[in-house]
């Protein structure tokens, strides 16, 4: 269902307010979208997966056993598993930068209150409610 004109305007206002309030966080969120970096990461994961597959099959062919267990095949399986996780999670390079940017900006705004850290969704909801109340 498409957004109404009023909802589109509110969404644009929220987006522009986010860019004005915290441009570093907004740019890091924009960078996290699927782009050329994630394609390269997936290609690397496929290459590592193939290496793991070669180790898995090669471990059976070479028949090197440690305690009755084919150790090279186990290493190949673990490499394949790691490659799958890398493809699914994207390596986590951009997410740590986004977390540190949001954490640094959140600590500046808290004013050293010393209270427990709140979730990002709670802070965003509170900001939205404040802006919504100011408009009315």
Automatic annotation (TrEMBL):
**Low complexity biased stretches:** 96-108
Q: Which InterPro entries match?
A: DUF3040 (IPR021401)
Coiled-coil regions listed:
none
Stretches for region Disordered: 93-136
Q: Where is the composition biased (Basic and acidic residues)?
A: 119-136
What are the alphabetically sorted keywords of the record? Membrane, Transmembrane, Transmembrane helix
List membrane-spanning regions.
43-62, 68-89
Q: What is this protein called?
A: DUF3040 domain-containing protein
Q: Which organism is it from?
A: Gordonia asplenii
